[in-house]
Design brief:
Belongs to the bacterial ribosomal protein bS1 family. With 558 residues, this protein is an alpha+beta fold. The chain has nine helices and 30 strands. A hairpin with a 3-residue loop joins β22 and β23.
Length: 558
């Protein structure tokens, strides 16, 4: 009996030694035989049992799913520990299994399922059914995500970008999946849209240059210039995020899948009626919407704007920035000067709604009228005087004084002086007013020689005796008679034979209005008298002497 028992034991021992026991570091199948103290006791066969923490059977964010009798795969780390139990791991078995599965998916460029379960520097950790992958922050969504909380623990597809089994590195992307599905969705939506279609959309985002409108999975750009016929400074004036708007598809780019939208295209174009509503020369009220260096834009009605060029803003303020004449939002009266329907341009005038100040001045101050004003500027050719209506008049050097040279006379004036002058000419077209200061007291020369003609005999008074002749005065006007004109007789051409205060008759030989001088001669008077005597009393061939004739003439006078 004892021998038989020994034989049986030996046979059993040999049998156990011959059994093909699994290698440490491999994945083996086992059966859950009990669950106690938060652990599952698993029989892996070969008379080996091991313990696995229940949490190793749980998916991220879920409760453990394991029951007695379940068949599971575990990783055999060691055949026996100090307690005689096998050292096994469900997690490591899952990881090995996952790596095999993921490598195949990576090779096939297939999507894999996983769940984001943690946050790390630069991104997140993702459980891909046993293997942990890194999800960079830039690969979470198409647009930057501020709060990834709602995405945590959700089972969702990912694309493997890179994997290295030796180092245990896997990099995945959620964005690639979204972009792919968006592209499919975009293609589907775009396929249903046509240029000119009217559709409804939701304002998703507002920028400086326009708004992005979601048309049901695809975004279109509504540019600021296509929002309204009127000028829109910023899209937020018209739209708010989340608002539903009706838009028209203006253009679809089939290559880039970009969609251009418009809102104003669904409204009536105010330019269709501009020609009839705003005839040339008509005056209208408008609002200043924008001011530039070259002029100001004035809105006549919503969608119809015109430009008042800087040259049409003021009669008098020529080199001034438009912002000094008008301000934004100001209401102004403007005149329609030109309409170009094809270019959608209206040229307006501001100054045309006010009277031309040169016309007004000419009416109020005709030529010869006396005016008063302040010396605004002094130049090398004259004075500029500020006049009524914010306009200037000019006094030329030659109009400053009768007696002084202009260059000398201008020295008597300073900027800011109040002066009086006479209006000598108003040129409305050239916007010029000519003034004269010297004409204030009238023209003494013109008054003095008013009735005098060339050849007239006038009486003058000797005011000075000089070597070259004598200075005389006629009606307050000074003249000079040269020595050669003092007498017909050479012996009598002596200045010293005259005295200051003498009154003498002279003949007017010349009247020069420019130099304001009278040409006078005693000699010419004597010759004229002789000629007259000859004509009256005889001829040169009658034989009568000049003395006879003059004697007879003198007797006749007596």
């Amino acid at each position: 009996m004892a021998n038989a028992t020994m034989e049986e034991f030996e046979a059993l021992l040999n049998e156990s030694l011959e059994m093909d026991t699994p290698d440490e570091g491999s994945v083996v199948k086992g059966k859950v035989i009990a669950i106690e103290a938060g652990q599952a006791i698993i029989d892996v066969g070969y008379k080996m049992e091991g313990r696995v923490e229940l949490k190793e059977f749980a998916e991220p964010g879920e409760a453990p799913k394991v029951e007695v009798g379940d068949e599971v795969e575990v990783y055999l780390r060691a055949a026996e520990n100090a307690r005689g139990e096998a050292v096994i791991s469900r997690e490591m078995a899952r990881r090995e299994e996952a790596w095999d599965r993921l490598e195949k998916a990576y090779a096939d460029d297939a999507r894999v399922e996983g769940a984001i379960f943690g946050r790390v520097k630069g991104g997140f950790t993702v459980d891909l059914g046993g293997a942990v992958a890194f999800l960079p922050g830039s690969q979470v969504d198409v647009r930057p995500v501020r709060d990834a909380g709602p995405l945590m623990g959700l089972k969702q597809p990912f694309q493997i970008l890179k994997m290295d089994r030796r180092r245990g590195n896997i990099v995945v992307s959620r964005r690639a999946i979204l972009e792919e599905s968006r592209a499919e969705q975009r293609a589907e939506v775009i396929g249903k849209l046509g240029e000119g279609d009217s559709v409804e959309g939701v304002v998703k985002n507002i920028t400086e240059y326009g708004a992005f409108v979601d048309l049901g999975g695809v975004d279109g750009l509504l540019h600021v210039t296509d929002m309204a016929w009127r000028r829109v400074n910023h899209p937020s004036e018209i739209l708010t995020i989340g608002e539903t708007v009706k838009v028209q598809v203006i253009k679809i780019n089939k290559d880039t899948h970009r969609i251009s939208l418009g809102m104003k295209q669904l409204q009536e174009d105010p330019w269709d009626l501009v020609g009839a509503k705003y005839p040339l020369g008509s005056v209208h009220k408008g609002r200043v919407t924008n001011i530039t260096d070259y002029g100001a834009f004035v809105e006549l009605e919503a969608g119809v704007e015109g430009l008042v060029h800087v040259s049409e803003m003021s009669w008098t303020k020529k080199n001034v920035h438009p912002g000094k004449i008008v301000s934004t939002s100001q209401e102004v009266d403007v005149m329609v000067l030109e309409i170009d329907g094809s270019k959608r341009r209206v040229s307006l005038g501001l100054k045309q709604t006010m009277r031309n100040p040169w016309e007004q001045f000419a009416e109020s101050y005709p030529e010869g009228t006396q005016v008063e004003g302040e010396v605004k500027n002094i130049t090398e050719f004259g004075l500029f005087i500020g006049l009524e209506g914010d306009i200037d008049g000019m006094v030329h050097l030659s109009d400053l004084s009768w007696d002084e040279r202009g260059e000398d006379a201008i020295q008597n004036y300073r900027k800011g002086d109040m002066v009086q002058a006479v209006v000598s000419e108003v040129d409305i077209e050239k916007e010029r007013i000519s003034l004269s200061i010297k004409a204030l007291g009238g023209d003494k020369f013109a008054d003095a020689v008013g009735g005098v003609k060339r050849g007239s005999i006038v009486t003058v008074e000797v005011t000075a005796i000089e070597d070259g002749g004598i200075e005389v005065e006629y009606e307050g006007m000074k003249s000079f008679i040269r020595r050669s004109d003092l007498s017909r007789d050479r012996a009598e051409q002596r200045p010293e034979r005259f005295n200051t205060g003498d009154k003498i008759d002279v003949r007017v030989t010349n009247i020069d209005s420019k130099t304001r001088r009278l040409g006078l001669s005693i000699k010419a008077r004597e010759i004229a008298e002789e000629k007259e005597a000859v004509e009256q009393y005889g001829s040169s061939d009658s034989g009568a002497s000049l003395g006879d004739i003059l004697g007879a003439a003198l007797k006749g006078d007596e």
